[in-house]
Design a protein that fits this description.
Low-confidence stretches: none
Number of strands: 4
Shape: elongated
Structural class: alpha+beta
Helix content: over 70%
Order of helices and strands: HEHEHHEHEHHHHH
Number of helices: 10
Radius of gyration: 30 Å
Mean pLDDT: 77
Largest sheet: 4 strands, antiparallel
Distance between the termini: 31 Å
Strand order of the largest sheet: 2-3-1-4
Strand content: 5-15%
Length: 268
């Protein structure tokens, strides 16, 4: 029973810590996925007095990927009833060329301002519409959500780490006499720490398996997917085995470092 309590006391902070790290991965992947979706519908409109060359634009804007010529036919057709054919021809000849530009990612506010300046520096372009107000609202919201989540998860990770370190000290307090006897008999450091190494490795592995089962099942639940789709949030595909494997290795290294720092105190 005492051994079970020891394992549970270590598994819980490890679970919280690994869960927080995985949630960071999911949050970043979801925000990145959402940015890609928003970017598919995002266009920059430019007007030019001459035909534009894609290579020229690419030399000025590195994130530029494609351009399409917009046909003002629909706009002109609306004026047919009120404007004579002669005036319509004059209007067609005097209208500038309209282009829709696509970027390979959703730029930040400062990047968007720089893109606008670079486009206006291209010969022929006299007007650039970046829809900055709408873009800035969306981007600011994404940044705000990310900041709140990062702050919340940082607190969880910090508290979990403190709780884990405290539990290490409790274990050392309970086994101080045994460790000191090994020190007197000249047992090497790794041998004195072996039991803690084994406990930490086993508990990290258990936490990894619990979270792997939880995330793989919960993430793919139809009710979760439908609930998020109802608020226009689409979860990206995530390989939890790789993500949690990285977190498992990182957590194990940090945990072993904590074990060593605690065990070194016995020597002192």
């Amino acid at each position: 029973m005492k051994s079970l309590r020891t394992h549970l006391a270590l598994i819980l902070p490890l679970l919280f810590m690994m869960f927080a790290f995985e949630f960071v991965f999911i949050t970043n992947a979801t925000i990145k996925h959402y940015e890609n979706i928003v970017n598919k519908d995002y266009n920059i409109i430019v007007t030019s007095t001459i035909a534009l060359d894609e290579k020229n634009i690419k030399s000025k804007v590195s994130s530029f990927i494609s351009m399409s010529l917009l046909d003002p036919k629909d706009l002109i057709d609306r004026l047919k009833k009120d404007v004579s054919e002669k005036n319509l021809k004059l209007l067609r000849s005097s209208l500038p060329k309209f282009y829709s530009l696509k970027l390979d990612y959703l730029p930040t506010q400062s990047e968007l301002e720089n893109i606008e300046k670079q486009l206006l520096s291209i010969n022929g372009i006299n007007k650039v519409e970046t829809f900055a107000k709408t873009h800035n609202k969306i981007y600011s919201l994404l940044v705000l959500i990310e900041m709140i989540l990062w702050s919340f998860l940082f607190i969880i990770i910090l508290l979990s780490f403190v709780l884990f370190l405290k539990q290490m000290r409790i274990w050392l307090y309970e086994h101080t006499q045994r460790v000191e006897i090994m020190c007197l008999f000249g047992a090497p450091f790794w041998f004195r720490s072996f039991m803690l190494y084994k406990i930490v490795f086993l508990d990290c592995l258990i936490a990894f398996l619990i979270l792997l089962g939880f995330f793989t099942q919960f993430y793919n639940l139809s009710i979760v997917q439908e609930s998020l789709k109802s608020v226009d949030i689409e979860l990206p595909p995530i390989n939890f085995f790789i993500d949690l494997g990285i977190i498992f290795v990182a957590t194990l290294i940090v945990s072993l470092f904590c074990v060593n720092s605690v065990m070194f105190r016995v020597k002192k």
